[in-house]
């Protein structure tokens, strides 16, 4: 089923007309209510009336994650707080998270795009959807939740983790759709095997997987182990959360809800737009958002766009599976982690030196993050108890800053390799 045929199957001209009207409104709104963005436009010698059509989008200045941090927490909101009905946040590049606010209209648009995504995935109102993305500041849980309710499916808001309970409810409630990170779905499959539960014993038929990159090989593995169709869903909290784009049953690219989020692909070095079909950095402009509309937000995700009509009948442009990032953000068990966040924790402590190495592995189907960090000469001790106390302190600080557990290993001063050029801080051994 196509949820909103008018928008999802519009002709290119119709779509561009809608985008033009909405872009102009958005630029007006931001220019008059976000001083930092107005300043950027002034520096580029632009006023809102210079933006006459969607083709003028490329004249506008970019927005980056640091702009949100510099205006922390609410400085980029364009409505008074009395209009904001929900706040979410995701990791920033250092200590402070990136905060986003939604008006009631924003929440409705969000439900709309998630509902469209679920329909693309072949989910319908008779389905029982187990939402195993985290509920909380992360947008995954609540984003999927309201989309399912809007569709009329039965949602089980179990949130992430608690694998035994996940499996129990899956059997007892007859869950037909699972929504979680792709790596967690493989973990569930492993645990099922260990518990002697066969895929034939379950009613699962579709998985809605996103929040982290995954490959076609992983898709095949998930599909065969769980006996389901594995659908890729993409989004980021700055733009709205999950539902920015999603695959349809044909699984050849994710349809972008471009009447809400206008995509561009740019060269991350020259920042110039690239022609359709070339791989580059994905940039989004939100054109319906009220709480925190963003102009030309650089996602740092690398992909390419395909404007051909899809076999499903939708004309919404498709983005390919993400090919990586143009920055150093890692996604560990669905949680965004910047090496710089870890560095700031280490720099705050007098006992550690800013020489460290992060090692990411995939053990079974779960990501693990190991930190090797040098202890300062004067704190390096022969007494194991003291070192263990320091290790625990770092582990605890990292857990509260990043929201995930890190396996900390203290090493002697001057043992981590120094390089003359760019330090290699991260070794990612996952085969993604
Ligand atoms: O991960 C929103 C989300 C929740 C999407 C549930 C899908 C499902 P953030 O925490 O802000 O938001 O992280 C956004 O995660 O820029 C990508 O790098 C990555 N990402 C999200 N979906 C995918 C995907 C949510 N399907 C960042 N494939 C994005 C690859 C993804 N990477």
Task: Describe the structure concisely for a colleague.
It contains 11 helices and 20 strands. The chain has 432 residues and is of the alpha/beta class.
Provide a descriptive summary of the structure in words.
The chain has about 425 residues and is an alpha/beta fold. The chain folds into two domains: about 1-325, 3-Layer(aba) Sandwich (Rossmann fold); about 330-430, ANL, C-terminal domain (GMP Synthetase, Chain A, domain 3, 2-Layer Sandwich). The chain is about 30% helix and about 25% strand. The chain is built from eleven helices and 20 strands. Helix 2 (about 10-35) crosses helix 3. The chain is globular. The mean pLDDT is about 95. Bound molecules: 5'-O-[hydroxy(phenylacetyl)phosphoryl]adenosine. 5'-O-[hydroxy(phenylacetyl)phosphoryl]adenosine binds next to helix 6, strand 7, strand 8 and strand 12. 5'-O-[hydroxy(phenylacetyl)phosphoryl]adenosine binds near residues 90 and 236.
């Amino acid at each position: 089923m196509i949820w909103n045929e008018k928008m999802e199957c519009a002709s290119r001209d119709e779509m561009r007309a809608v985008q033009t009207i909405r872009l102009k409104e958005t630029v007006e709104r931001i220019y008059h209510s976000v001083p930092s963005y107005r300043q950027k436009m002034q520096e580029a010698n632009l006023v809102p009336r210079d933006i006459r059509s969607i083709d003028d989008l490329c004249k506008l200045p970019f927005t980056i994650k640091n702009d949100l941090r510099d205006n922390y927490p609410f400085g980029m909101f364009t409505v008074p707080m009395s209009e904001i009905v929900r706040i979410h946040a995701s990791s920033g590049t250092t200590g402070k998270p990136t905060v986003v606010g939604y008006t009631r209209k924003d929440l409705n648009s969000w439900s709309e795009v998630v509902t469209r995504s679920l329909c693309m995935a072949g989910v319908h109102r008779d389905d029982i959807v187990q939402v195993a993305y985290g509920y909380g500041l992360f947008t995954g849980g609540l984003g999927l939740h309201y989309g399912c309710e809007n569709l009329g499916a039965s949602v089980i808001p179990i949130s992430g983790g608690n694998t035994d309970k996940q499996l129990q409810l899956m059997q007892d409630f007859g869950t037909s759709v699972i929504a979680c990170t792709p790596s967690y779905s493989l973990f569930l499959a492993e645990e099922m095997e260990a518990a002697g539960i066969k895929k034939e014993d379950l009613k699962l038929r579709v998985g809605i997987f996103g929040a982290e990159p995954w490959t076609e090989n992983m898709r095949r593995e998930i599909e065969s182990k769980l006996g389901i169709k594995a659908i890729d869903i993409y989004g980021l909290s700055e733009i709205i959360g999950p539902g920015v784009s999603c695959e349809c049953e044909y699984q050849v690219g994710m349809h972008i809800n471009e009447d809400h989020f206008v995509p561009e692909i740019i060269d991350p070095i020259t920042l110039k737009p690239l022609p359709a079909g070339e791989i580059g950095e994905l940039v989004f402009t939100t054109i319906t958002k009220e709480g925190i509309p963003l102009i030309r937000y650089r996602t740092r995700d690398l992909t390419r766009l395909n404007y051909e009509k899809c076999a499903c009948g939708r004309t919404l442009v498709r983005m390919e599976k993400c090919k990586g990032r143009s920055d150093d953000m890692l996604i560990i068990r669905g949680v965004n982690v910047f090496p710089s966040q870890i560095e700031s924790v280490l720099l705050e402590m007098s006992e550690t030196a800013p020489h460290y190495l992060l090692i990411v592995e995939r053990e079974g189907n779960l990501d693990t993050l190991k930190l090797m960090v040098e202890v300062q000469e004067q704190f390096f001790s022969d007494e194991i108890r003291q070192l263990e106390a320091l290790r625990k302190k770092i582990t605890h600080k990292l857990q509260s800053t990043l929201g995930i557990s890190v396996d900390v290993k203290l090493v002697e001063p001057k043992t981590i390799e120094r390089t003359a050029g760019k330090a290699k801080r991260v070794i990612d051994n996952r085969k993604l």
